Amino acid sequence: MTIETDVAIIGAGVVGLAIASEIAEQGRRVFVFERNRTFGQEISSRNSEIIHAGIYYPENSLKAKLCVEGNRLLYEICEQNNIPHKKLGKIILAISEEQIPRLEEIHAQATKNGVIDLELLSQADIKRLEPNVKGQAGILSPSTGIIDSHSLMQFFHQKAVVHGAEFLFETEVVGLGRVGEGWKVSVRDWEGISELFAQVVINCAGLDSDRVAGLAGIDSEDYRLHYCKGEYFGLSSRLRGSVSRLIYPTPEHAGLGVHVTLALDGMMKLGPNAHYVDEIDYRVDDSHKDAFYQFASRYLPFIDQDDLHPDFAGIRPKLQGLGEPFRDFIIEHNGQKGFAGLVNLVGIESPGLAASPAIAKHVAKLVSEII
Predict the structure, then answer these.
(1) Which residues contact 316 (CB under 8 A, 6 or more apart)?
(2) Fewer CB within 10 A of the end CB, N or C, for the chain?
């Protein structure tokens, strides 16, 4: 007998988990399929764990709107459920005077996005706030913070389960077909291939979301993902306490630049860099250590090259290729294209973690309009 459900979610990263918890809480029957042994094994566990404020993105983009809302929601969730986090704040630096106009553009963009707590910093302000950091000017973002992403995912998972969601790990979706008023979902696990019928399918497959859309018959160049690798180097424990906030350079094209991230225990790391790759490979290339040092030492003059050690790497699922302009999140119901009941989330990279609770509410609203 074929199992029937209201909603099938493909992917149990932080976004899939947040959506599962939101929809299950509304009384829908939810199944979540994840090809890995447990949740959050890919993008969600290989990032800077930053609660972003929504500063950089174009006005009215999903990235801007959902990040600003997600920032507020995430702090509420953390405070109400004892999820480890710290609202440290961050400083975006103009390392040289030539970068100051770009810094002013960023401040103006953030204001348009509704980020109204930013403060422009002079060189003296930077020295007062972070005596060990070198910069010509800066922006202080008080509402940027850090979070234990695994604890957040545990919270979403437990909330979803309490409300009846069922999770099938080590289960890969291998087929999607429109049947009547819903979808036949074919999955493969250790027992072989089985099928489930769902009224709504939500594609949250992260690095594989373009391929999953293809299983349903969507062959769109707009959905094509480009893998962008980011590596991190840890800094020596002797430097713990050298800075008290997150320190970011003026952003680069593919990412936000090699920045200083603080862990909840105060340990520091540098990263990520950004380079496009053809395959998923999480090894850190030790030969990049010198480039990290040369870049970071411009605004962290207290570090030595020997302080750096390879830490970890992550892969961003970018919709824009090398040198291409900004691409927003794709979060859309494809009913108008003959794929009623299929909701695709493609290109959910940064600020996906910070935006996750807002994305969940956005997708839940789409689902409520379908069934």
Answers:
(1) 43, 227, 228, 229, 230, 255, 274, 349, 350
(2) N
90-142+226-318: CATH topology:
D-Amino Acid Oxidase; Chain A, domain 2 (3.30.9)
Taking phi first (over 0 means left), then psi (-120 to 50 degrees means alpha), and beta for anything else, what does residue 124 get? alpha
Residue spans of the domains in the chain: they are 3-46+150-224+326-370, 90-142+226-318
Encode pLDDT of 286-344 as tens digits: 999 999 999 999 999 999 999 999 999 999 999 999 989 999 999 999 887 889 999 99
Give the separation between CA 268 and CA 246, rounded to whole angstroms.
9
Query: Going along the chain, which residue ranges are E strands?
Result: 3-10, 30-33, 50-51, 85-86, 90-94, 119-122, 137-141, 145-147, 166-168, 172-179, 182-189, 192-203, 226-235, 246-249, 259-262, 268-271, 275-277, 308-318, 330-333, 342-346
Q: Which pLDDT value is given to residue 337?
A: 80
pTM: 0.96
Question: Contact, 125 vs 158, CB < 8 A?
Answer: no
Instruction: For 68-91, write each residue's pLDDT tens digit.
Output: 999 999 999 999 999 999 999 999
- The CATH code belonging to domain 3-46+150-224+326-370 is 3.50.50.60
pLDDT of residue 252: 61
Q: How far apart are CA 168 and CA 158, in angstroms?
A: 14
